[in-house]
Backbone:
């Protein structure tokens, strides 16, 4: 399961997986207890993939922070999100030294650590971004008639040219 499939819902604890969209609601499944819930379409829902943390230079995507925590912990779990405030801030400073201490609150740090540990417990440890398989202009792109175009061809068959 990729980070784009995992949701965070404001006012709800835990992480969720998108199931379906209804008329005025979204159906999600809790990753912890697998219970399905209907969430109103007006609720604030975010994908983990879309969340970033402020730094002094640019925003760092959450998946990058998860990778740094994973590297620091050699694939293991991070410290508890219930650790003392100073310990959490020091830990996060080791993971992301240039985070913006004015805009990243302790509650944000707790969430990041909690989400990482939750994903680790569920066995979701692949934090790589999905890349496009084929880019425009590569060999093997479909031509105008829907046929595979090899290098040097423009589209269609050799007889047409």
Residues:
């Amino acid at each position: 399961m990729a980070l784009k499939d995992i949701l965070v819902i404001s006012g709800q604890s835990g992480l969720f997986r998108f199931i379906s969209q209804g008329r005025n609601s979204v159906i999600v499944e809790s990753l912890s207890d697998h219970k399905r819930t209907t969430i109103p379409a007006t609720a604030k829902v975010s994908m983990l993939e879309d969340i970033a943390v402020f730094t002094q230079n640019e925003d760092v995507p959450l998946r990058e922070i998860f990778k740094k925590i994973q590297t620091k912990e050699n694939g293991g779990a991070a410290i508890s999100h219930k650790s003392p405030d100073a310990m959490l801030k020091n830990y996060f400073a080791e993971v992301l030294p240039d985070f913006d201490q004015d805009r990243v609150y302790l509650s944000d740090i707790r969430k990041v650590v909690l989400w990482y540990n939750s994903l680790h417990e569920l066995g979701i440890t692949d934090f790589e971004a999905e890349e496009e398989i084929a880019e425009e202009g590569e060999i093997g792109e479909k031509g105008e008639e829907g046929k595979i175009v090899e290098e040097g061809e423009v589209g269609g068959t050799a007889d047409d040219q």
Remarks:
- The first strand starts at residue 6 and ends at 9.
- Residues 132-161 have pLDDT under 50 and may be disordered.
- Helices lie at 62-72, 85-95, 106-122.
- The first helix runs from residue 62 to 72.
